[in-house]
Design goal:
- With 127 residues, this protein is an alpha/beta fold.
- Helix content is 43%, strand content 14%.
- It has one domain: Rossmann fold (3-Layer(aba) Sandwich), CATH 3.40.50.
- The chain has six helices and four strands; from the N terminus they run H-E-H-H-E-H-E-H-H-E.
- The chain has a four-stranded parallel sheet with strand order 2-1-3-4, with helices on both faces.
- Helix 4 crosses helix 5 (89-101).
């Protein structure tokens, strides 16, 4: 289990925590409307500085297996050193699944049905 920062007005502590990862390429899993409306976009851009950010938000509110496959494909095309998830439950679930399943050699269907085992390698996730 990683560190938890769950208090109001802890942007400086969060910034220090993120800098500890020294991220160069960040995979951002996010919602659509709330990400802009909440000011999260500006906060993340400021927080990450010069890190390259690739956003993934092209999935339904109740994600389908096809949405997960798209996310894994996009993730595998990059050499990401950190995943950040900003949004509701579907966003967080999608980010967790991408973090773990994108590193697996087995077919996605086999992993989901339990016909293959998941290894413990994953990209760090900040949500």
């Amino acid at each position: 289990m990683g560190q938890r920062i769950f208090r109001e007005n802890q942007q400086a502590e969060l910034a220090s925590y993120v800098k500890g990862f020294n991220p160069n390429r960040v995979f951002l899993v996010r919602g659509n409307k709330s990400f802009e409306a909440s000011g999260a976009r500006l906060f993340i851009e400021d927080l990450l500085g010069t890190a390259e950010i690739t956003s993934f938000s092209n999935f339904s509110v109740n994600p389908k297996i096809e949405d997960l496959q798209k996310g894994i494909e996009v993730f595998r095309k990059g050499d990401f050193d950190l995943i950040i998830a900003i949004g509701g439950g579907s966003v967080l679930d999608m980010a967790k699944l991408i973090s773990v399943l994108s590193h697996q050699q087995a077919e996605l269907a086999d992993l989901i049905t339990g016909n293959a085992h998941i290894t413990d390698h994953k990209t760090p996730l900040l949500a």
